[in-house]
Design goal:
- With about 425 residues, the protein is of the alpha/beta class.
- Helices cover about 30% and strands about 20% of the residues.
- It is built from 15 helices and 18 strands.
- Strands 1, 9, 10, 11, 12, 13, 14, 15 and 16 form a nine-stranded mixed sheet that branches. A five-stranded mixed sheet has the order 3-2-6-7-8, with helices on both faces.
- The two termini are about 30 Å apart.
């Protein structure tokens, strides 16, 4: 986007704060006892053995879903599932299952998978990408339920997805196998139909009802992945089709317990080095930042973050800066990187335009910090409670201001480094 923004001197002149007034900062690392799976590919192969596939004949074509999230272990999991299906005598292929992401085009969704390391060479099977869908019926609201033609043409579908708390809504079924069936297999039309229905009824109930229809139509099983707080697989489980609606809420409880959160509940300013579709469906995880801003959903009580500053959009997002509207400040480079075609297509599908609104655009990091001092109600800049993280998937590695450093130094399993003045080069943070 090409816009003319005020320069740094003009914005900084709006208050009396200088870089010398800013608090000192320290690095913080939280340590956890985490269980993880050593060989995710082998776990994927084993999960196939738990699926009810006796109804499939040798040589049957089986579609395996692949989403748009940056799940670290997903390429290995998919490779294992594909290998496991091949060993059973089936002919697997992988299909993008990501609603309207990738610009809602077949090539864009294939490119999204390649960015995430999901390629034909890595998987050892074809990737079929198409946006064509067909309606398989109507839900109780009288709205059509769509499924990708590639999925319907196959002899069966294996849903492969991460199970985790959703960033838009809460209920017994959130982000997982059921959502992959409804939104992923539904492509753009299915995603749009679901989100519109979710604005008129309980989102989780709409997903569960539609998922049951789709599972009965074409799904032969699911492979669920739950991550630990370090974004590594701690559960990989094969779930027969008739068990998906009942088992997923149990896996969601496990995922909710594993969800990494910030070690602080109250902040004046949270600095996010990046947001992106590979980080979260909303660019930043709303559970971590404590902001939802979705029609019909209440805002959480905690965490309480007064201002959020976004510095960039991940390359894997290809300019889809969904979630930038959750921030109060955004670096002008992040705004310049926006691809409004992708962003607005995603918003038109997901149904919440406030998440695409432009925040206050700043020319550099120093300006964002000085403006935070005058927009948070903090009288003395040295009292400013600031935390900086890479993204909401990495809340255990932080840089924090002195008031927070002193507080966190008293906590167990947190290592706090020495306090040093924050430094800038041409207004940009230096490490």
């Amino acid at each position: 986007m090409n816009l003319d923004f005020p320069d740094a001197e003009t914005l900084r002149a709006a208050n009396d704060v200088t870089r010398e007034d800013l608090p000192r900062f320290a690095r913080v690392q939280r340590d956890r006892d985490l269980d993880s799976i050593d060989d995710v590919e082998a776990a994927g192969r084993e999960a196939v053995e738990d699926l009810a596939l006796d109804s499939l004949c040798s040589g049957a074509e089986v579609a395996v879903t692949a989403g748009s999230r940056g799940v670290h272990d997903m390429p290995a999991l998919l490779s294992g599932v594909v290998d496991g299906l091949g060993r059973r005598g089936f002919e697997p292929f992988v299909m993008p299952a990501m609603g309207s992401h990738g610009g809602a085009t077949a090539d864009g969704q294939r490119e999204t998978l390649e960015t995430l390391g999901v390629t034909e060479d890595r998987l050892g099977c074809p990737i079929r990408s198409s946006m064509a869908v067909s309606a398989i019926g109507e839900d109780s609201l009288g709205r059509p339920v769509y499924v990708a033609d590639d999925a319907l043409a196959a002899d069966g579908v294996v849903l492969a997805n991460r199970v985790k708390p959703h960033t838009d809504f809460h209920g017994p079924v959130e982000s997982g196998l059921c959502k992959m069936a409804v939104i992923g297999l539904g492509k753009r039309r299915g995603a749009e139909s679901l989100h519109n229905a979710g604005l008129a009824a309980d989102f989780s109930e709409v997903i569960e009802e539609r998922a049951r229809m789709i599972v009965d139509e074409c799904v032969v099983g699911g492979v669920a992945l739950v991550e630990n707080a370090a974004d590594r697989a701690t559960v990989v489980e094969g779930v027969p089709p008739d068990r998906i609606p009942d088992r997923e809420p149990e896996l969601l409880d496990r995922a909710r317990a594993e969800l990494p959160m910030l070690p602080v509940d109250d902040l004046d300013l949270l600095v996010l080095d990046e947001i992106g579709k590979d980080v979260s469906g909303t660019g930043m995880d709303t559970n971590v930042v404590g902001r939802v801003r979705f029609h019909g959903e209440s805002e959480p009580d905690s965490p309480n973050i007064t201002r959020i500053y976004v510095r960039s959009i991940t390359p894997a997002s290809h300019g889809n800066g969904l979630g930038i509207g959750l921030a109060d400040f955004a670096h002008r480079d992040a705004v310049a990187a926006l691809d409004l075609d992708d962003l607005y297509t995603n918003i038109a599908t997901s149904g919440e335009p406030s998440r695409a609104r432009l925040p206050f655009v700043v020319p550099d990091d120093l300006t964002a910090l000085t403006l935070a001092c005058s927009t948070t109600g903090v009288a003395d800049p040295t009292d400013l409670q600031v935390a900086r993280i890479e993204n909401t998937m990495e809340p255990d590695t932080l840089v924090v201001s002195e008031p927070l450093a002193n507080e966190l130094a008293e906590r167990e399993r947190l290592s706090v480094g020495p306090l040093e003045p924050v430094t800038f080069e041409a207004g940009t943070f230096t490490e």
